[in-house]
Amino acid sequence: MSTCKNKKKPSASKIGILNESSLHRTLKFSYTGIKGKTEVKVGGFVADGIKKDGEYIEVQTGSFAPLPKKIKEFVKYGKVRIIHPIALAKRIEVYGTDGKLLYRRKSPVKGSKWSIFDALIHAPLLPLTLGVTIEIVMLDITEKRIKDGKGSWRRKGISLHDRELAFWHESILLKKTADYLQFIPFKKGEEFTSSLLSEQTGIDKWTARKALYVLTKLKVVKRNGKIGSSWVYERAK
Predict the structure, then answer these.
(1) Judging by DSSP bridges, how do beta strands 45-50 and 191-192 pair with one another?
(2) CATH numbers and ranges of domains, the chain
(3) Hey, which of 106, 116, 136, 177 has its CA 20 to 30 A from 171?
(4) Contact in structure between 88 and 142 (CB atoms under 8 Å)
(5) Under a CB-based contact definition with an 8 Å cutoff, are residues 88 and 169 in contact?
(6) Tens-digit pLDDT profile for the chain (237 aa)?
């Protein structure tokens, strides 16, 4: 692990453990390892964990918007691995306030590796930070809810209680910008639009646009002008 002079050594802390989902906690301990430490103070922030080999672990289930300042501080002390879980499938369980299961159902919403761009679009330059690895973890999850009348109107008053890991499918490592080429099914020199990317990969057009926005920022693809109102892209690597 790299060190910096005049830097206070990170220390274990109980800060940040409140309101933590079971999913977040499971991933935090899994990646930190038995001999690592969790809830570690780093400058003015708290990392989810630090492995025995000195790599910092940060589990981020949502947008990456809050991460740039925090990660910039972490990499002063060592390498950082950002764990981003994506649910391939989700089962929803709804309980009464007495703890009894009322019903369960499958969510129609399904994630894919392309869901990483929902998080990255808010911090598209984060992967360029030296020493940072992003790991997509493809999972099935169980989401537990309580019918207590306190939830949002969208859930008809049903509150979100917890998320649990149900099944672990695979991990996808994004360590170098070249690793992002897996999202581009075109050869170097082939031009394409977001619509063509959508057709080739089966993703919706909005996801294709988000992906290309991020990949352009990472200089994985470049713009070659427009055809009508559509940008034309090409692999830059």
Answers:
(1) unpaired
(2) 11-175 (no CATH), 179-237 (1.10.10.10)
(3) 106
(4) no
(5) yes
(6) 333 444 444 443 333 334 689 999 999 999 999 999 999 999 899 999 999 999 999 999 999 999 999 999 999 999 999 999 999 999 999 999 999 999 999 999 899 999 999 999 999 999 999 999 999 999 999 999 998 877 676 777 788 899 999 999 999 999 999 999 999 999 999 999 999 999 999 999 999 999 999 999 999 999 999 998 999 999 998
Can you give the pTM of this predicted structure? Answer: 0.88
In what helix (H) or strand (E) does residue 17 lie, and over which residues does it extend? none
What residues form DSSP beta bridges with 92?
Answer: 105, 143
What does each C-alpha distance from 229 to 55, 215, 217, 220 come to in angstroms?
Answer: 45, 20, 20, 22
In sequence order, the β-bridge partners of residue 140 are 89, 167
Token digits of residue 206 = 């909005």
State the amino acid at position 126 in one-letter form: L
